[in-house]
Give the backbone structure.
Amino acid sequence: RYISRHRRRCVEEYKEIYEKVKSILSKAFKIEKSSIRENSNFEEDFALDSIELTDAICFVEAEFKIRIIKKGTVNMQFPVPVTVHDLVMLISQKIKETAKTEMNRIV
């Protein structure tokens, strides 16, 4: 039972992040939401270059209040997402890390 509840919660969180990412990409890069899929490749499907991908990550950081690109990082020296799914998983990981850090500060 716990596993199914946990799995259901993880799926719901993933879907929520995925929908927000679709909205961000759609608004920022004028991409039709319906054409954004989990396996969409940023370079091949949306023709985003590294600067635009960095911009997308900055938009995501602001929306989710997380830090993906460390201050002072140059030349994409961070986990570079290739697909929308990669980005969603990276966001999920960073949200959990941020929550854990916040909890440790409280304790």
